Amino acid sequence: MHEIFGVTPWGFTALAAAALLVGFSKTAVSGANTVSLAVFAAILPARDSTGVLLPILICGDILAVLTYRRHAHWPTLWRLFPAVAGGVVVGTVFLAFAGDGLVRGSIGVILLVMAAVTLWRRRHAEAPGAEGDPTRAARVKAGSYGVLGGFTTMVANAGGPVMSMYLLSAGFKKLGFLGTSAWFFLIVNSAKVPFSVGLGLIDGRSLLLDAALVAFVVPGALIGKVAVNRINQRLFEQLVIAATVLGGLQLLLR
C-alpha cells in the first residue's frame, strides 16, 4: 500500500474533518459523506483511500444504528440485500481491473443519473408509495437500485447517494429513511471487509491511520443527531439530493 504515513499535518487535518463529516452524514444527511470520499481520495491514492475509509464508515454506521435502530423497515432491507450482494461481486471484479479514473468516472455518472431521475419524478408529481411499497414495480426498482448500490459501495464507498435516491423515491420519511439506511450500511459495509482485505485495500498500516481518525466520527454523529431534529422533511430531501449531485460532480471533475 502507498506510504500512508507520508500524510502531512494539513493532510491529516483534512482527513479528520472528513471523518467528522462521516459521522454527521450517518445521523443527519445521508449521502453527504461523498464529500469525505473526495477528501480521502485527494489526500491518499484513490484505491487505497477506499480501504482506509471503510472502517471509519463502519464506525459511523454503528453510531447511526444505535441512534435510529427502531425506525428501520426490514422488509425493504430484505428485498435489497440479494441484489446488493450481486452488485458487490461485480464491483469487486471491476475494482480488480479498473484504474482510478475509470472508477471515479463510472460512479460519478451513476450518481448524477440517479439524482436526475429522482428530480424528474418529483417535477412530474409522481407520488411516491408508502414506505416499503411491496408492489412488483417496487421490487424491480429495489433490485435495480440494489445492484447499483452494491457496485458503487464496493468500488468507491459511494453507495450512500444511490440508496438515498432509492429510499426517497420509495416514500420514506426522515426517521424511517435514517433507520433503514443505518442498518443497510452497517450490514453491507461489514460484509465488504473480507473483499477489501483480499484486494489489499485494508492492512495494518491503514488500520493504524483509522485508529487515529475514528475518534472524529463520534462528535460528527452527535452534531448530526442534534441537527436532524431541526431539519424538516422537505429540506431533508433537498439536502440529500444536493449531496448526491455534489458527490457525482466531485468524482467526475477530480
UniProtKB/TrEMBL annotation:
<dbReference type="InterPro" id="IPR052017">
    <property type="entry name" value="TSUP"/>
</dbReference>
<keyword id="KW-1133">Transmembrane helix</keyword>
<dbReference type="Pfam" id="PF01925">
    <property type="entry name" value="TauE"/>
</dbReference>
<keyword id="KW-1003">Cell membrane</keyword>
<comment type="similarity">
    <text>Belongs to the 4-toluene sulfonate uptake permease (TSUP) (TC 2.A.102) family.</text>
</comment>
<keyword id="KW-0812">Transmembrane</keyword>
<feature type="transmembrane region" description="Helical">
    <location>
        <begin position="80"/>
        <end position="97"/>
    </location>
</feature>
<feature type="transmembrane region" description="Helical">
    <location>
        <begin position="103"/>
        <end position="120"/>
    </location>
</feature>
<protein>
    <recommendedName>
        <fullName>Probable membrane transporter protein</fullName>
    </recommendedName>
</protein>
<feature type="transmembrane region" description="Helical">
    <location>
        <begin position="51"/>
        <end position="68"/>
    </location>
</feature>
<dbReference type="GO" id="GO:0005886">
    <property type="term" value="C:plasma membrane"/>
</dbReference>
<feature type="transmembrane region" description="Helical">
    <location>
        <begin position="235"/>
        <end position="253"/>
    </location>
</feature>
<keyword id="KW-0813">Transport</keyword>
<dbReference type="InterPro" id="IPR002781">
    <property type="entry name" value="TM_pro_TauE-like"/>
</dbReference>
<keyword id="KW-0472">Membrane</keyword>
<feature type="transmembrane region" description="Helical">
    <location>
        <begin position="207"/>
        <end position="228"/>
    </location>
</feature>
